Amino acid sequence: MTGEEIFTVVRGIVLEVLPDLDPDSVKMLAQLGANSIDRLDVTLGAMEALRLRIPMTAFAGVSNLEGLVNVLLLHQGALAS
After folding, report:
1. CATH code of 32's domain
2. Structural domain of 37
3. CA dihedral sign of residues 26, 14, 47, 49
4. Are 73 and 3 in contact (CB under 8 A)?
5. Is residue 47 part of a domain?
6. Planar angle of CA 20, 29, 56, nearest 5 degrees
7. Which residues contact 12 (CB under 8 A, 6 or more apart)?
8. For position 76, what pLDDT does the model report?
């Protein structure tokens, strides 16, 4: 998958987890101001949707959607069983 395809999946998860967000505000460099539980829900939801298994430590320091997409892109060979 490309970064854009992964972003599309992540964007959909963000809008599920944070339904009150303006869809136009969900952009690659967006800092959504979500709490830690919402960020975890987005991360886990994206990994599930993409069928990836990635250690949570890989997401340390991720502060925006671009960082999340980059980690998912980097680990896309880590398929969940």
Report:
1. 1.10.1200.10
2. 3-74
3. negative
4. yes
5. yes
6. 85
7. 49
8. 87
